[in-house]
Amino acid sequence: MRTKKSIGIIALLFSYSLIAQEILTKKEAVEIALKNNYGIQIANNNVKVSTNNTKIYNTGFLPTISTTAGANYRNENQEITRQDGNTTSVEGAVTKSYNASVNLNYTIFDGLGRKYNYQRLKETYNLTKLEARETIENTYLQLFNLYFQVARLTENHQNLAEVLKISKQRLKRAEYQYEYGQSSKLAVLNAKVDMNNDSIVFISNKQQLLNAKRDLNIVLGVKKEVTYEVETTVSFQEIKSFEDLYTKTKENNVSLKQRKKNLAINDLNIKFAKSNYLPRLDLTSSYNWNQSENPSTSFLAGINTNGLNAGLRLSWNVFDGGITKTRVANAKIAQENQQILIEQQQETLRNTLKNNWENYQNQLFVLKVQEENVLTSQNNFDRTLERFKLARATSIEFRQAQLNLLNNKASLNNAKYNAKLLEIQLLQLSGDILNMKF
Q1: Which tens digit of pLDDT belongs to each residue from 26-44?
Q2: Separation in Å, CA 166 to CA 2, 235, 281
Q3: Cα separations in angstroms, 19 against 13, 23, 61, 227, 387
């Protein structure tokens, strides 16, 4: 009696702990990953660097201003011979000089190189944003792969717990029957072996579940206790047709957008290289101050000057040995390569999309069939269980019905999560993964 009471208390506490466990929803997992994932943090920092590069301070459109200052002291012995033959000797003749200047330089025209470079920096910024978006999309895919792996193992764990519970009841029933002479020792041994095997599978699944949660924590970017639970409900989005999906893919796929952005950057590289064919006009200006104190041997005792200097400098590299011509030719080849890569990317995307679409449709069919199989195997198990209690079914028949139900439930879980992951891959290819519904 005390044993039964203890078991009841333990079961009550266990059920309470399950209720009290934290539920990590899919939406919360995404929010945590967007904030803490290491790859996303680096991608966001790269966007900040690219933002800094597009500011006017990095374009060359602003003038440069510099200041210089200096002082010079000279102490020397001098001997001066004049035209009339007289000489003068001075020991410790001191000369002092001071200078300061403010200089301004500005490029008025550089063959439009600055213009194309600034446009190139803006396109590079847009490319960096696309790279950050690709990182986020890949993180989404990695996150849900691990999240649904945890969900899959969680459901399997629950099914295995139910199997283990039934196996324990079967062993206890076999032991009672053996004590009262209603069955042989063989039935007890078979029940015990099956229970032990179920225990091993149950413990192994539990360890896999804990490992999967730790892997999920890495993607989340947090140090989280693995006592939390995840959602096991899965809802599917409506994807109308393959052609509709392919149209979205051509417009929104992030990899294809990056290829097109690289094409635009290469076009600006050509224009930037051609800017060396044109002349360059620079403005230079400075304000200078100079002062000197001379020894008695000098014709002037001192001098003090200050004033503004300004000038224009026109330069034109008429022929640079063919360097510019080579750069333009190579930039055009790079642009042609980018166009080829875009065509290749479009073909690859269509092929990948078609394969994933057909796999997705097949997996949805498998899911429907597995749902029917679970209902059938559940009905078969329930009937076999009743017959087993009435000694109308052997332990082998009961065990087979039990394993059939377990395997069909596992197959249903696999089909459900495989279908969902294929759906997410389709959303990523079509550039719609960040708008997916949870």
Answers
A1: 999 999 999 999 999 999 9
A2: 22, 31, 90
A3: 10, 9, 64, 12, 35
